Each structure stands twice: as structure tokens, then as C-alpha cells.
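On clarity, I found the account of how folds are encoded harder to follow than it need be. For illustration, here is how one protein appears when written out as sequence plus C-alpha cells:

:::
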Amino acid sequence: MRRLLVFLLMLAPLLFSAADLSGKWTGSMDLKMPDGSLNSTPVSADLKQTGATVTGTAGVAGGDQFPVKGIFDGNQLTFEVQAPDGVYAVKATAVSDTQLKGEVSFTSPEGTKLTASLNLTRN
């Protein structure tokens, strides 16, 4: 019995890393402004995972959505969103099958850089 428990504990990370991120996700992006204030924006993503490749769209909830192409490795998701106001580089961790948490690095066309925290929940 003990060996079975040890085996299952060793197998758990492999099962989790095989999670599929496909689906609709909603949540918020809390952007830290240059003056230190936070600007919370509702965001959404519609993702499709094939192997380690993640594609789909993401953007402001209820607004324009932009193409996404990224990688899901282990429990780490990375992708970029090219929007008219700049580039959003996303690094998120799948903390469960239904929750992604991470950071967004934003760079405007003028070179302004901002960071935001990201929290998404699968619908």
C-alpha cells in the first residue's frame, strides 16, 4: 500500500502537467500605473491547446480580442498578445485546472513599460 501511495505521489505532477488549457477564461489584469496606482481591467481569453502549443484569442472582456500563440510547459503558460496599444507578454502558472495566475509585461509603441498581475478562471 505504501508503494502505491509513493507511486501516485510521483505520478501527480505528470498528470497535472498534462492539463489542457482549452476553453474560455475570464478574470482581471491589475495594471500598476507609473504613479503607483492600480488599474483593474476585466479580461478574457479563448484558448485551444494542442500538445504544448496554445493558440486562441485574448483581450479586454467584452472588447476586441487579439490572436494568441504560446507554449504550455509543465504548469507554465507563456504567450504574447499584439494589440494596437502595444505588446502584452504573459507568463502565467496553472495553479489548478480552473485557475491561471501570473504577470503581464506591457510595452507601448513608444517604449513605455508597465507590469500587471493576472488572474484568470476557466468558465
Notes: Residues 1-17 have pLDDT under 50 and may be disordered. The domain at 2-122 is CATH 2.40.128.20 (Lipocalin).
